[in-house]
Amino acid sequence: MAYHLKPPQNVFILPTPCDQHNPLFDTVQSTENFVLQRTKASKSQFLNSFLGTIQNVFDTKQAPFRILFRRQVNAQALMIAGAETQKSIDHAWSWVQENFVDKLQALDDAQEKEEWVLTKIRSLVTRADKGTDDITSDEKVRSASRAFRQTFNVLPSERLVSYYSCSYHGKMMNQGWMYISENYLCFYSFMLGMETKIFLELKDIGDLQKEKSKRGVFADAIRVVMKDGQEYFFSNLFHRDETYDMLVQLTTLTMERLLRNTALEHAPGMSNGDDADSVKDVFSVDVDSLDGSDSSFSPAPTTRPLRLGLEEQKRDSQFQQQFNLPASEHLMEESSATMVQGDKTDMYHGRLYMSESFLCFVCTDVNPSVLALPLYTIRRVERMNSRSAMYALNILTWHQMRIVFRLNGPRTQCEKFCSTLKTNLKLQVRAMRSLKPFLATCFSEALLADRADVADKDSGLGWIFEFPGDPKKLKNKSKTKLWLQYFKDNGRNLTMTKVATFPKLIRVGLPNKLRGEIWEACCGSLYLRSMNPGEYTKLLKDNEGKMSLSLEEIEKDLNRSLPEYEAYQANQGINRLRNVLSAYAWKNPDLGYCQAMNIVTSAILIFQSEEQAFWTLNVLCDRLLPGYYSTSMYGASLDQTILEQLLEETMPILHKHLKKVDVELSVACLPWFLSLFINSMPLIYAFRVLDCFFFEGPKVLFQVSLAILKVNGDELLASRDDGAFMDVLKKYFGTLDQSAFPKSTNPKVRALTKFNELMLVAYKEFESVTPERVAELRRKNQLKVVHHIGSFTKRSQLRNINPGKFSKDEMGVMYDRFYSALFYGRTQTHKQGEARALDATTFVSFLGSIAHWAQVEDDQGDDDVMATGGPPKHRRRGSNSTTSTTRERRRIVGRHFISRLFERFDQNGTGLLSLQQVTTGLDDIINGDLMTRMELFFDMHDLDKNGTLSRDEILGMSESLLFIYRFDDGDSYLGSISNFIRNAFEFAEKVDKTPKEAESKEPDADEDAAAKKEGASEGDEKETTDGEEKAEESSTKRKSTSENEEPEIQMSLPSFRMVVLADETLEKFFDSGFANSFKLLEPIDRQRGLFAREVFDSLLSEGRRLAGSIAGGIQGRGRTKPSTPATPSSATLPGGASSSSLTEKTSADGDSKIKSGETANSSDDGEKSAGRGEDEDEEDEDEDEDEEGEEDDLLDEVDKFLSEFDLESGGKKDLGLTSATGSTESSSP
Fold this sequence. Notes:
It contains 47 helices and 23 strands. The chain is of the alpha+beta class and 1229 residues long. The strands form 4 sheets. The protein has an 8-stranded antiparallel β-sheet. The chain has a 7-stranded antiparallel β-sheet with strand order 9-8-7-6-12-11-10. Strands 1-5-4-3-2 form a 5-stranded antiparallel β-sheet, with helices on one face. Helix 38 packs antiparallel against helix 41. The longest helix has 29 residues, at 771-799. The chain starts with 11 loop residues before the first strand and ends in a 20-residue tail after the last helix.
């Protein structure tokens, strides 16, 4: 059985139990198994207010129309569909009746009926609503998501993260619900008829603050500050901390997208020879359709709520940062446990975690201990009998160290932990095979094997060119002995446990030969290197000979990298530095290379091999210092903001002085952070800072910076400008090796250098600067910094744009809309050419944001928008064929018009539009003159580019005009477009066709019809029977009328101008109307996300109902009396036809011709429609006709205009949407 109707999208839902005898719903239609209901609130304003208040309090807002399934008349019902409009629910009801009723009659058992229907509905929903909340496994989330989308009219693809009951403090306190989605923060309240809606974009949030209620009693409030300074205060949040953390996480993700979207450069590490990805045409839609075969449905699995995914993401991120693990690791199991190492009696109580490749333990008691043990370093795991614990695991590592974990938890939890561990160990066989070659590159192995003087060929440059500093003064031998003992007691490299003595050994300074490996072990790059053997070499080999912007910059900076170190005066050191920086640029093309990376990398290469330095640089840029070396230097700017706040908290006098003398703190401190003090301090002391940095993280940079300012506080207070400020600090760095207390009589005190004093002050005076404190300050300030960078980028780009005649404010609005379309339209990563350019999809969104008529709905379920760009077929009103609905056909008209505008702007033919191209194109339209705009419309519709408009191209232009005019009040434009068609046909030049051309046209037309039929069936699994019959009927009509066809016509540009200027309405449209339709200084709400129009409609609901009632009566009389003589105000048309015929809604099949006698058929259809309406409630009829008025078929209006020419000439005009390739009746295969 073939389906004659396509199921409507965003109407069907996963079956949900409900009460079919709900007193708040009326039954409109019912069958044995299905019930169509409508809420009573749609009839009573009082009931609507009362019900809305109840729904607001309990967050139970439901759609006003719904369809229920019941296996028996009195059985429990299941809600299978819900809609906001009568039209949508009627479509769903018709589809259910056509596709389910006959099947259910063949089943006798009620249980079988229910299972069959539920399977079909679940399959329909999970396949059609993939990626939406409608298929989430949480029923509460599904319900809340539907209420969210109904209230704020957002796209179905917008996933709801969470929702909370709260109060909004505006002019008065409003109790309602806060909805948090991927891109929006919304609030809705409806209390006794008072409705409050707040719709905020996460990308526009400037600050989030935890607050107390206005009376300062309860800590249950959040203040949201937008980037424009507007504030929103929400209280009565019983889960305030959870809400705040969720918003912080989402805004952080949003800021990352925003930074990529507003980058000053794009993918500098990408090869210069790479081509941009092919651009997907928005006018081509590939939809998996549902057929009517009897094959079993395979419902797609339901998805988990997005909130759970974000919670897991947050938990995994914290887990990875705690143990410095790769981003590929995810927390799988955890349990309370006790750890015992070897034969020691010390017991560490803490928590044991497990990921795909690691077993991690942390103890935060008096004796801290941290262990991240790769599973591929485990030789054997045994289960022990323990009196103190039910489960005890005896683990033997690769280095023959025995570790015992006693699991303290419920039996089921312990069994699950052991089972997961067993499974993960089996997956580590391949990694175990590469372990031995990897350990050969670790100096700790040679040290314990008493081969400490044997240097590996791939060791750091210091092994060849010697390490900086005097080994005796640095006490390398004594430090090496201490580490040797530590390795024996606590393991080494991959199996090392960090106990209480570990940070002490770090702070006194690392021995030169062990420094590189300890850095790896501290920051986690050791794990990356061991899990990705050979990747560094492969990167260099695969990209050998290629060039990029980053490589060009790298070559410029190679000779400026630590020139004082001997290795970088030789080719060996330069080549190593070039290889590491190039490999990272190829691995991370979005970041590529930034100045100061060469300084840090050159320092690392002194102690590490190329491969070691490569993975250390990865950790440094991606996790330790995110955003430091990007084109916007977002991370460095953020940390400078944090440093200034910490200075104000800890040294307010110095901070006030710097503000008074107008000294920028970042002038001195930014180079410290970018180069990690390597360019500021002597190398031996900078390496000491790096020792602490790799172990303790970025907080060390803040502590050392504050200590430098603290130690030199008196001299800095005497400085009056930037020069004096810098001079004080430069002199201090030159004296770090001098005694801090030269006059002391105690030799040990006198031996303390100023660097020792500096580190002592850093750890003692500023111990309050913890990793948690730094992370909190980063979250607090990141929004402000990102918006500041965005403003700077905006100013920079606008300076390089030729604005034409646009003002500064107009260019600012255009910039914001341009990048907003990119922000919401680009969900995947793009290559460098696409980073800051609109493709066909995002251009539709951008144009809709500045022009009301361009707001085309982004419905991916269009049946008639095929890859060929062919026109849709026509249908009669009330038809149940597979042809497009009115709204779909109107949308296709608009998209074809916008596609031609896109091609007009895209002068280079790249399929992408830059901001400059968009500015130039809009400048021609908005600031051009009358003749320029008429020429633009002419060229856009001259599809064959022959300098004239054919009959079909003239009709295509009339369709475009109707599309643009569709939101205008009144119908005066209908007569103008009618006159345009009549005059265009009259004044166009007629071109006679030879008999051969007339004969050759028929087979071409048949081929076109076949091509259209084939194109229309590409998106469907089976072609419907109705479509075949209509194609045959259309072909028959075309053949029967071929002899009476009129000569072709051609209208030149001068004739087109004459026709337009002859009509006052069209002249006004081209002179100012079309240009004024673009609003660059007033926000234009889009149907997808904004609700201003909805609020306005609600205020005028009563007036619209009255107007709809009057219009319905007039239209009803017009349908029953099609032969009524024309009124004096009517325009007399050729052949005795009056303008009253323009109000008749006639339409035909896509390839059929319009006959003069079809007006009577249209009247008959109108009478049938009126007859059906008598069985419905009068108010419903008014509402339906009002909605029908808003959804007038543009192509039917063209049909009305063409009917007058049929009466005049007796001929038949073909009507169809003009395809993007220039053919009206055909489309390219």
